[in-house]
Each structure stands twice: as structure tokens, then as C-alpha cells.
Amino acid sequence: MKLSIIILNYHSIGLVKQCLKGIESAKPNLDYEIIVVDNASQDGCREMLANSFAQVTCLELKTNRGYAAGNNAGLKQARGEYLLILNPDIAILPGSLEQLVKFMDEQPQVGLAGPRLVNPDGSLQYSTYNFPYFWLPLFRRTPLGKLSFINKWLQHYQMLDWDHKNNKPVDWLLGACLVVRAQAMQKVGLLDERYFLYVEDTDWCRRFWQASFEVWYVANVEIVHYHERLSAQATVGAFFRRITWIHIASWVKYFLKWGLKVPKVK
Predict the structure, then answer these.
(1) How far apart are CA 51 and CA 259, in angstroms?
(2) 35: nearest Cα among 7, 13, 68, 72
(3) 75-109 pLDDT, tens per residue?
(4) Which residue of 70, 130, 151, 209 could cross-link 265, Cys pair, CB 3.0 to 4.6 Å?
(5) Which of 22, 21, 57, 58 is nearest to 40 (CA)?
(6) pTM check: above 0.85
(7) If you write DSSP's letter for every residue of 207-243 in order, what string do you get?
(8) DSSP class of residue 144?
(9) Confidence at residue 266, expressed as pLDDT on a 0 to 100 scale
(10) How do the domains of the chain map onto residue ranges?
(11) What band does 239 get if pLDDT is binned at 50, 70 and 90?
């Protein structure tokens, strides 16, 4: 088995169906499997898969265990040489999966990689980051981020000062679409389930670098991401939203685990 695709569903049955249709339409020239993990959605996902995608494996979790634990359930079942974590709001373009696998085949030092993500209108979606400093959430969620010197720092954190036109090693990648070398994951381990939602991708990439595996952005592989970012709205009202506090809790766990020092890995 060359590639295992893991898709996590949480009340997103329509997106899961569209994502699977997109993979079918792309007709990947690969030996691959698809595993859909349902995070206790109770939205009829299993029935939809049985009726429309009988070849897809469905894992139903009894409770919503979050992003890391949900994806880990699929990773544990996967048989592929490479493992692809795929959000259901991703649209696979023809040839993209083959190109991503080809990149991993040709770069044995790379343990984890991600493609160039674009918005539905074709514009670039920024998905590469430098490792964060402790005060990042404060700057991103308050008007402080509008101050010129802080805004310049935030642009550097988000790598907005780079055109994203070339393949490049990066600190960490957004977890919407990540391909992982199974042999590398055996050494690094699964996603850290202490994170319910957010920051688990930052943590995982850091662990790959720590284990001497590189993390790369693959600019010549393009995939569409229908993404609405709900966690980084710089308004006072954002502080009262549950999703905001989940995100902040994940950041606290990250810095308690790693400390305040930002590593230099590239």
C-alpha cells in the first residue's frame, strides 16, 4: 500500500462526501486506501459511506475526542508507506496526490510535508509558519497586532515575506493536508492527544525536526482548501468565544511542554 488517506469527520458529512468525490474524480494512479474517522457526529456518515463509498473504511468513535485523537485512530489503522491527513474541506486536484508521493520518494530525509494550499478563487492560502513565541496569541487577538513593529513580526511568523513559489523546508505547516512518512512516524510518534484542537500540527512538526526529519512545503503541488479561520479574530468579543479559549488552552499546553525557547531547525 503506497498511500493511506485519513479524513476526520465532525458534523461535516456534506464536506466528506464532496472530498471523497474529488478523490474519485482525480483518479489517483496509486495503490491507496481511504479511512474516514467519525468523531461521534451522529450525522449519518457511516450510512452515507456504505451507500456511496463502499470501498472506504469507516471508524466510528463513541465520543468526540478532538482533532489529534480522531486522526490518530485512523493513523493506527493505516497500512500505507505514506499517510495523508486530509481535512474534509479539501478538494484534491488531478495529479496532486501522485506528485506529493513522488516528492516524498525523492526526498528520504523528509518526514512530513504539505502542499501549496489555495483558496477556491485560486489565490494563495498561507499555510507555513515559523515556530511561535509565547506572546503570539496576545498579538494576534488584540489591537496590539496592528502596531507597525508587531505587525511586521506577525508577518514574519506567518512567512508573509516569502512568495511561496518554491519548495522549501519550514518550521511547521497547517494541519489541513499533511503527508507523513510511516517509518518516520514510528520514531516520532502519533499526534499528541493532550491537544483537543489546535497546535497539534505545530507540536508534531517540531517533534519531526527534533527527531532529525525535515518538514517541507511543496509549492509545486497545489490543493484547494475551502477554509474559514475562526480562531484568530482580533476583536475583544473573540475572547468570549469557546473556540478562542480552546485555542489558548492548546497554546498554554504547548509552552508548558516545550518551554519558551524557540528552536532553530532549518
Answers:
(1) 49
(2) 7
(3) 999 999 999 999 999 999 999 999 999 999 999 99
(4) 209
(5) 58
(6) yes
(7) HHHHTT-EEEEEEEEEEEE-----S---SGGGGGSHH
(8) G
(9) 74
(10) 3-258
(11) very low
